[in-house]
Amino acid sequence: MRSPSMSKSVARRVTPRPLHTPMYREPVRVHRLGPRDVDEVCERVGARVATAARRCALLEGTLDRDALRAAVESVAPAWVARSRGRIVGHLTATLLDGTGRAWVPPDGTSFDDPAVLGALLEAAAPAWRDAGAHGLSAWAYDDPIEVGAWAACGATLRARRGVRALSTGDAGPAAGLGLRRAGRGDLELALALDRWGDPPGAPAPGDDERRHEVVALLEDPEVDYLVAELDGRAVAQAVVMSLPARRGSRANAVHLSAVAVDPDRRGRGLGTALVGSVLERARSVGYAAAEVNWRTADPRVERFWRGRGFTPTHALVEGVLPA
Fold first, then answer.
1. Do the Cβ atoms of 41 and 72 come closer than 8 Å?
2. Mean pLDDT to the nearest integer, 114-125
3. What is the tally of structural domains in the chain?
4. Edge-to-edge, what's the strand order for the sheet holding 109-111?
5. In whole angstroms, how far apart are CA 46 and each of 30, 40, 233, 312?
6. Domain check: are 174 and 98 in the same one?
7. DSSP code of 20?
8. What pLDDT is recorded for position 129?
9. How many Cβ atoms sit within 10 Å of the Cβ of residue 78?
């Protein structure tokens, strides 16, 4: 399903010029990030991360201030919104080659009012389009007000990220379920297992694209491509990798992805057993937390991950750029 766009007329209704809201008695002005804005943006990001951590203990609330400042200074371009001489919002994004999308990280934006977000997007869109982007993907904190602000600007909720702490109480695998790390020689098996994870009705990657991605995972020494076997037959898979340090994310965490179960054996607890085994494996080698992203289109997927103890911390929203 194509993400809804935000036309100029809609953007102007969301973001009148000059912008007057009950919160702001003065117009909001948007301009490119300059040297004098850096300290204030860093303070906003730090406060935002700390607030998110107070709401959810699974998130880190401390920052490396020097690294944050270096990151803010290196982003180009970036935009800030000011009202009454102070910053009331900021926006940055990474333009990923080949995706046609501008990617906004959780600390890539802040806004004191949803209309401020609309003003920032309208200002940034021309530069992003000139750089080859046509769409927008943003990781926001999983907060109804924040996600609602993105929705008001035409974006749609696509996925959530959940986190859970690892403890000795995690369930292990079901009796007879074996877990092994796949290698390059398992390519054809891995391709078949990967297809089990394709969501119904969603466009699947092409054969060449899928093969390239799976080969890269199998050959990456920092990735565990795990195959679960029962009675000598592969019945499920999971891809596990260590997470780099990221602002606001849980430290010492492992990321789960590409979790899939044989369609003929679903509903028998294999997914639960697989995840339990993977979590116990991660805990035993010293990881303190686990993270997973899931699509929101299927309520069963949401229930599964919540049932495995994962608490939503972030939301992925997507849309097309304002015209």
1. yes
2. 94
3. 2
4. 29-32, 78-83, 86-92, 109-111
5. 21, 10, 49, 21
6. no
7. -
8. 92
9. 22
